[in-house]
Amino acid sequence: MTDEYLNSWDRRRENVGRADVKKRGEEENEGWNWERWRKHFAELQQQNVGRVMSHLKKAVQEEYYGDAALVCDYAGAGLVE
Known about the structure:
mainly alpha, 0% strand
């Protein structure tokens, strides 16, 4: 009897957790259509490019040419200014 009672509570708790996750996920994705996702990733890419260029510029200014070369090689950045 005790095992059945505890198992029934475990099943109820699992079902509630699933409903909460589904509801929460639906709320987060509202308004995130294809255009919104494209805009989001474009913003991230722009931030990353800016960050890479900042590191490159700093490396050149501080005469860390080896670091600057690595940024150019691995980040696909060139000397732009």
